[in-house]
C-alpha cells in the first residue's frame, strides 16, 4: 500500500503538462492512485506563470509572441519560470493529504529533501532555502510550489539544469522590487544551474531522483493512462490552453 | 486614480495591490508570487478591501481581511493591509 508509482514518460506541451497536474492531483484526492512521482518532458520552451501573478508584470509579451513561446498559468502559486526542453528538470509529487504535515512551510522542506539529498550525492552543495527554494551558495537552483485540496497535495519543483539565462531575462520581466532586492543582496540571488557545478548529465540527475524515491519508498513505473491523457486534453481546451485562464490577471 | 504598491516579504513572497480609487476603493487587484489556500481567497481578499473610503485606516482593513477564511503562505493579512494603505498614500 505504501508503494509509490513513478510516471517517467511522455513529452507534452506546457498546457498539457499543467492540465496533467490537475488530473493527477484529483486522482490522488479520489483515492484512484497512490503517492506518485512524475518527471516532465517538454517539447518546446514555455513560461509557467504562478497562479496569482499578473501576466503583464511577469512576461515580456512582445518577445514571447515573436518567439512563439507559450505561456500557461499554473494551478499553483509562486513565481514565473522560464522552461526549456533538456535545460530544466521538473518533477511533481502527488500525495494523499495525510502523508504530508499540515505545517505548510515545513512541508516544502520535507518534500524537497529527497531531491536535495540526491543533488548532494551527485556532488552539488544544495540546500533548502525557505520558503520554497532549492539553493546553492551561488544562487537559486530551483523553486517549488504546492496546491492543497482537502484530500491531496501537489508539490512540483523546477530546477535549472542548463537554463539559457540570457533567454530567460528576455522572456521574463524582472520587477522593480526584485531588481532593487537583487542590488541590495548582491549576486547571491542569481540563478545557479546544475551544470555550473557538476558534470553530471541531465538524464543521470533524473535517474538519481527516481532511484531516490525507489530506495526510500519502493516504487513501480507506469505510463499515463489514456483516460488521464483524455482528461488533460479536455482541460487544455477548457482552461489551460485559453487566454481566459492564462491572462485572467 | 489607479495607484499600486507592493512588498517583498523577507523569507516570503511578493504581494502587489492595484487599486481603482475615487472617494472609495472601487476595485482592488491582488497579485504576486505568493501562495494562498483556498485559491478563491485571493478574490475574497480583494472584496474585503473594496468599498472602503479612501481614508480607511489600517486596522479597519485588517478587520475586513481577517474575516476571510484563508491560509496565506509567504505573506500575511498585515502585509496586505500595509500595502493597500501604502497604495492609497501614493
What does this structure look like?
Chain A: InterPro entries: aa-tRNA-synth_II/BPL/LPL, BPL_LPL_catalytic, Octanoyltrans_LipM/LipL. Chain A: Keywords: Ligase. Chain A: One of its GO terms (molecular function) is ligase activity. The complex is a heterodimer of chains A (249) and B (90). Chain A has one domain: BirA Bifunctional Protein, domain 2 (2-Layer Sandwich). Chain A contains 9 helices and 11 strands. In chain A, the strands form 2 sheets. Chain A has an 8-stranded mixed β-sheet, sandwiched between helices. Chain A is 39% helix and 23% strand. Chain A has 249 residues and is α/β, with parallel strands linked by helices. In chain A, helix 1 crosses helix 8 and helix 4 crosses helix 7. Chain A is globular, with a radius of gyration of 17 Å. In chain B, a hairpin with a 3-residue loop joins strand 2 and strand 3. Chain B is built from 3 helices and 5 strands; from the N terminus they run ββββααβα. Chain B has 90 residues and is α+β, with helices and mostly antiparallel strands. Chain B has a single domain, classed as Enolase-like, domain 1. The longest helix of chain B has 13 residues. Classes of the chains: A alpha/beta (249), B alpha+beta (90). Chains A and B meet through strand 9 and helix 6 of A and strand 1, strand 3 and strand 4 of B.
Amino acid at each position: 500500500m505504501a508503494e509509490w508509482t513513478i510516471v517517467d514518460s511522455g513529452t507534452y506541451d506546457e498546457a498539457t503538462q499543467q492540465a496533467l497536474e490537475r488530473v493527477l492531483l484529483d486522482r490522488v484526492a479520489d483515492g484512484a492512485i497512490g503517492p506518485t512521482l512524475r518527471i516532465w518532458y517538454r517539447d518546446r520552451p514555455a513560461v509557467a506563470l504562478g497562479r496569482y501573478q499578473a501576466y503583464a508584470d511577469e512576461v515580456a509579451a512582445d518577445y514571447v509572441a515573436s518567439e512563439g513561446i507559450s505561456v500557461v498559468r499554473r494551478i499553483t502559486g509562486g513565481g514565473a519560470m522560464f522552461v526549456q526542453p533538456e535545460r530544466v528538470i521538473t518533477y511533481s509529487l502527488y500525495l494523499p493529504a495525510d502523508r504530508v504535515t499540515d505545517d505548510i512551510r515545513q512541508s516544502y522542506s520535507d518534500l524537497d529533501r529527497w531531491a536535495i539529498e540526491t543533488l548532494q550525492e551527485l556532488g552539488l552543495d544544495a540546500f533548502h532555502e525557505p520558503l520554497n527554494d532549492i539553493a546553492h551558495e551561488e544562487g537559486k537552483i530551483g523553486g517549488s510550489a504546492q496546491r492543497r485540496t482537502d484530500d491531496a497535495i501537489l508539490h512540483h519543483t523546477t530546477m535549472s539544469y542548463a537554463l539559457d539565462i540570457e533567454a530567460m531575462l528576455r522572456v521574463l520581466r524582472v520587477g522593480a522590487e526584485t531588481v532593487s532586492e537583487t542590488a541590495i543582496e548582491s549576486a547571491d540571488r542569481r540563478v545557479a544551474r546544475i551544470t555550473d557545478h557538476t558534470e553530471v548529465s541531465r538524464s543521470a540527475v533524473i535517474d538519481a531522483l527516481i532511484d531516490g524515491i525507489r530506495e526510500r519508498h519502493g516504487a513501480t513505473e507506469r505510463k499515463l493512462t489514456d483516460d488521464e491523457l483524455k482528461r488533460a486534453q479536455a482541460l487544455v481546451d477548457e482552461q489551460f490552453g485559453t487566454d481566459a485562464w492564462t491572462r485572467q490577471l | 486614480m489607479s495607484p499600486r504598491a507592493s512588498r517583498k516579504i523577507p523569507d516570503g513572497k511578493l504581494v502587489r495591490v492595484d487599486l481603482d480609487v475615487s472617494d472609495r476603493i472601487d476595485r482592488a487587484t491582488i497579485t504576486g508570487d505568493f501562495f494562498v489556500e483556498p485559491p478563491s481567497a485571493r478574490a475574497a481578499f480583494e472584496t474585503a478591501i473594496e468599498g472602503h473610503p479612501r481614508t480607511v485606516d489600517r486596522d479597519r482593513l485588517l478587520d475586513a481581511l481577517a474575516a476571510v477564511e484563508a491560509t496565506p503562505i509567504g505573506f500575511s493579512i498585515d502585509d496586505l493591509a500595509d500595502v493597500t494603505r501604502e497604495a492609497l498614500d501614493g
